[in-house]
Design goal:
The protein has four domains: 173 residues, Alpha-Beta Horseshoe (Leucine-rich repeat, LRR (right-handed beta-alpha superhelix)), CATH 3.80.10.10; 211 residues, Jelly Rolls (Sandwich), CATH 2.60.120.430; 28 residues, no CATH class; 126 residues, no CATH class. 19% of the residues lie in helices and 24% in strands. The strands form seven sheets. Strands 1, 2, 3, 4, 6, 8, 10 and 12 form an eight-stranded mixed beta sheet that branches. A six-stranded mixed beta sheet has the order 15-16-14-28-22-25. A six-stranded antiparallel beta sheet has the order 17-18-21-26-23-24. A hairpin with a 2-residue loop joins β23 and β24.
């Protein structure tokens, strides 16, 4: 018997055996080129525990770690195999998942040496540096997840070639630049997340042809232009792009679809995550019971809306966008705190159609998701940031710590300036704190209620730039000896404002303006107001010169340091009346007054805008002209 038939028989038996024992007996071998590529990549990535003594396609422990917690997956998957003999096939890397592996390197350009790669998931590491342009050669790539790293730079232009992408996520990094236009060619996308680009304005992406798109996150970018009139075909999920904080024009155009501001409001109250609640002092907190979702925009009240973005990380469980407890907390308005709205990433409340001016913003918090049962459950730490009008106002805010315990109430007060009818309160998880205590998906912002009220509503006898107290002091409590005349618009008092040159700002009542007002504009307002209250009507500036002063095209004359200023008593009275009407919400009456008795009011009244820095946009012209007319009585 020759050896050859014997050997063939042996092979035949092996082959039968391989059939009998299934694919297990066929070993996968990674192509040599790709083994070398992985070796080079390991160094760059900082992946030190790949065991090259065994084949990367062997599925041995270092290459595929079984039963890891979600968020900490470690696997290299091979595919696209072709047999070389009955026991072996040569394969290619089709997927690399290194999630939450504490990698501290950079993204290797050697990745392009894995041309069959379909999935690359490097989320939740500390990778840094820019994305190599060679990645654009991975034209088979269907999923690219780089969220929550420390990458910088722009999305490379070569990514235009990645048209097979179905899922692209690059949020929570330090990327710059804009949202590239070429994503409109990624027509197979079902999910897109490009957030936190620190760049110039991006235009809202044209996604007309991306018909499979189900989830879109564009959180934290600066978007401009209007939201296109684009309706995704599938409609399977909630599809709105939350874009916050965005360039106003984006938000505004989106809000305008829902509200065309027929009415101007000066407050709103929201019982976040709960039913409508009326408090003893007459405030009604609107219901906010929308069940929420990973990419949600919802108009919740007459003049407010909210948007939420984010999947809870462990979404094998239910999503906790709202939360309720059975018992009320032991406070007088416990109802407000037994419900809350939560978000895994970004939660924004928008007020719109608001009168411009200063607002008191009260954010009500109480931790109602943690247990206080003495076990590890009480170790939960919820940490998030809060921005108002895009300014960071609470960094690493921890409700339990601030409130002094679980289920305790903490109310944080802020002053916000509204200058374009909109107010934006943005709560944001920055990746800190625990995420699985007392159960999975407990992290991110949580808020119980919001109340926003114009400071005007709280004014009574305060009068615009000058508090009555200051004016009383300056006129010696309207002492008769300071009365210098009585014209058509009431007594005129000589006010000795202990005034020093350039020190007029001391007259500004900071309680009204907050510390946030535009000093220069306020200064112009004061000076013009003083010029306009000159006892001699003919010495008051003309309408056109006042307009020019406000526009800044002519300088406001410096007031003589020694000259005593004159305030108009009727003016004070009118302002007081105005606030009272505002307080009683008799807006129509104010409008009527303004319209019908223009003469009397123009001599003295002070609409709300007069109390605040002026904004010279065209929308304000109408009001402004009234303001100017009201400030000055023109001969
Ligand atoms: C099949 O190919 C592999 C890899 O080249 C080799 O190690 C193995 O010995 C071969 N098996 C047979 C039966 O030829
Ligand atoms: C991220 O990179 C910045 C510099 O770009 C560095 O200051 C910071 O420490 C890095 N953060 C982490 C967590 O590595
Ligand atoms: C998009 O998906 C379809 C269907 O799965 C596939 O046939 C097509 O090749 C994909 N397009 C690209 C550019 O990869
Ligand atoms: C989209 O793809 C087409 C065809 O390849 C190309 O001509 C066009 O420039 C691409 N659009 C963008 C914005 O990159
Ligand atoms: C969408 O696809 C059509 C047809 O393929 C093409 O003519 C059009 O330019 C595309 N629009 C965008 C915004 O990419
Ligand atoms: C917002 O976008 C508009 C329109 O593109 C632009 O004119 C404006 O300068 C942008 N504003 C800011 C603050 O970036
Ligand atoms: C409006 O207020 C924001 C801050 O809240 C400020 O950055 C912006 O310059 C203001 N715009 C005008 C026109 O004053
Ligand atoms: C009124 O205006 C004139 C001219 O600007 C000025 O000289 C005078 O001091 C002003 N009078 C008062 C009381 O402010
Ligand atoms: C406001 O005043 C300006 C300047 O006098 C004028 O051009 C404009 O038409 C006025 N606007 C309204 C709405 O009255």
């Amino acid at each position: 018997m020759s050896l050859l038939p014997c050997f063939l028989l042996f092979l035949h038996i092996l082959w039968l055996a391989s059939l009998a024992f299934g694919a297990d007996t066929v070993s996968n071998t990674l192509s040599k080129d790709e083994v070398l590529a992985l070796r080079d990549m390991a160094k760059t990535l900082g992946k030190n525990d790949w065991d090259f003594a065994v084949d990367p396609c062997s599925e041995s422990y270092s290459w595929v770690t079984p039963e890891t917690a979600p968020g900490n997956e470690n696997s290299v998957t091979c595919g696209n195999c072709f047999p070389i003999n009955v026991t072996n096939q040569i394969c290619h890397v089709i997927s690399i998942v290194l999630k939450g592996q504490n990698l501290q390197g950079t993204l290797p350009r050697d990745l392009f040496r894995l041309p069959y790669l379909q999935e690359l998931d490097l989320e939740f590491n500390q990778l840094f540096g820019s994305l190599p342009k060679e990645l654009g050669n991975l034209v088979q790539l269907e999923s690219l997840f780089l969220t929550s790293n420390n990458f910088t730079g722009e999305i490379p232009a070569t990514f235009a070639k990645l048209t097979a992408l179905r899922d692209f996520r690059i949020g929570d990094n330090q990327f710059s630049g804009t949202i590239p236009n070429f994503i409109q060619n990624w027509t197979n996308l079902t999910r897109l997340r490009i957030s936190d680009l620190n760049g110039p304005d991006s235009t809202f992406p044209q996604l007309m042809n991306v018909t499979m798109l189900k989830t879109l996150y564009l959180t934290g970018n600066f978007l401009s232009g209007s939201v296109p009139n684009w309706t995704p075909v599938s409609g399977a999920m909630n599809l709105f792009a939350s874009s916050s904080p965005v360039n106003d024009s984006g938000t505004v155009s989106c809000l305008r679809r829902h509200a065309n501001c027929q009415t101007t409001y000066n407050s709103f109250h929201i019982n976040c995550g709960g039913q409508q609640v009326s408090t003893a002092n007459g405030d009604t907190y609107d219901a906010d019971t929308d069940s929420g979702g990973p990419a949600r925009f919802q108009v919740g009240g007459e003049n407010w809306a909210y948007s939420n973005t984010g999947h809870f990380m462990d979404n094998d469980r239910a999503n906790y966008y709202t939360w309720s407890i059975q018992c009320w907390l032991a406070t007088d308005i416990g109802e407000l705190y037994s419900n809350a709205r939560a978000s895994p990433n970004s939660l924004t409340y928008y007020g719109f159609c608001l009168a411009n001016g200063n607002y008191k913003v009260k954010l009500h918090f109480a931790e109602i998701m943690f247990d206080d049962d003495g076990t590890y459950n009480s170790l939960g730490r919820r940490i998030f940031d809060v921005y108002i009008q895009r300014k960071l106002v609470l960094k690493d805010f921890n409700i339990v710590e601030e409130a002094g315990g679980l289920g305790k109430v903490i109310i944080k007060n802020f002053i916000a300036v509204v200058n374009n009818s909109n107010l934006e309160i943005h709560l944001r998880w920055s990746g800190k704190g625990t995420t699985r205590i007392p159960f999975r998906s407990v992290y991110g912002p949580l808020i119980s209620a919001i109340s926003v009220e114009s400071e005007l509503k709280q004014l009574d006898l305060q009068t615009g730039f000058f508090s009555l107290r200051q004016i009383k002091a300056a006129t010696n409590n309207f002492d008769i000896t300071n009365k210098i005349g009585e014209g058509g618009f009431g007594p005129v008092y000589k006010a000795h404002l202990l005034k020093e040159k350039g020190n007029l700002m001391e007259l500004v009542d900071e309680r009204i303006l907050g510390s946030d007002f535009n000093g220069e504009e306020a200064m112009v307002m004061i000076k013009v107001a003083l010029l306009c209250t000159n006892a001699t009507a003919t010495l008051r500036p003309t309408m056109s010169s006042v307009v020019s002063m406000f526009e800044g095209s002519i300088a406001v004359p410096d007031l003589d340091a020694d000259s005593s200023e004159v305030l108009d008593g009727k003016n004070l009275e009118a302002i007081r009346l105005y606030h009272q009407l505002m307080k009683e919400n008799k807006e129509s009456e104010i409008q009527e007054q303004l319209a019908s008795t223009d003469g009397a009011w123009s001599a003295s009244s002070s609409p709300a805008a007069n109390l605040y820095p002026l904004h010279l946009d065209s929308a304000n012209w109408d009001k402004r002209n009234k303001t100017i007319a009201a400030t000055c009585s023109f001969p």
